[in-house]
Design goal:
Helices cover 68% and strands 0% of the residues. The protein contains seven helices and no strands. The structure holds zinc ion. Zinc ion binds next to α2 and α4. Zinc ion (ZN) binds next to α2 and α4.
Length: 185
């Protein structure tokens, strides 16, 4: 799938795992159990990438815009998230894009600047027989439905767990906005 959807899923993964982090001090070395959560975030990122890639999909976002969008979304999400979660968000994001970096980055570089770097695909969901990629433009509705499902699940997890990951001042702002709306209604 487009990197943007992997990125979105990685934010939801970090939000879901955020409840399990013990150490709230960003600058202290993570405890053993926090290290396990961080490692779990990276592995989960890779596995969810596999699930998304085996799901039938085409590519609604052109590749350059897709990469730029992810590179914009990542710092934006850090900006609105609690600071002690930055490392968790970063490892979940790294896990979510890792398979594409390993398997597809050299191919993309070759195509863009004409190099002939070796292209080796080690993740099975990038192999033709397991990949859900649709390149001939068919099954658009099916692909659109799966993209909507990924977005809906990710946004639902982010919304449900917002008190855990959203920065306090933004959280209280959204709550006060709601209560002022209620007063006006
Ligand atoms: Zn992939």
């Amino acid at each position: 799938m487009n990197v943007t959807f992997h990125t979105l899923a990685s934010f939801a993964t970090a939000a879901a795992l955020s409840a399990r982090l013990e150490n709230r001090n960003l600058w202290r070395f993570p405890s053993a159990s926090d290290t396990l959560i961080l490692g779990g975030g990276f592995i989960t990122g890779i596995l969810i990438h596999g699930i998304l890639d085996t799901t039938p999909h085409n590519y609604p976002i052109p590749s350059v815009i897709d990469i730029l969008l992810s590179l914009i979304l990542f710092p934006l999400f850090l900006l609105i998230a609690k600071r002690y979660l930055w490392l968790l968000i970063a490892v979940c994001f790294a896990g979510a894009i890792f398979p594409d970096l390993v398997d597809l980055a050299t191919n993309m570089v070759n195509r863009r600047i004409g190099t002939s770097l070796p292209v080796v695909k080690i993740f099975p969901w990038h192999w033709r027989q397991y990949s859900g990629s649709i390149y001939d433009g068919s099954r658009r509705l099916e692909s659109a439905i799966y993209h909507l499902v990924v977005a809906a699940i990710s946004f639902s997890i982010l919304y449900i767990s917002r008190k855990r990951w959203l920065r306090g001042e933004l959280l209280s702002k959204s709550t006060s906005d709601k209560s002022s709306d209620a007063t006006h209604n």
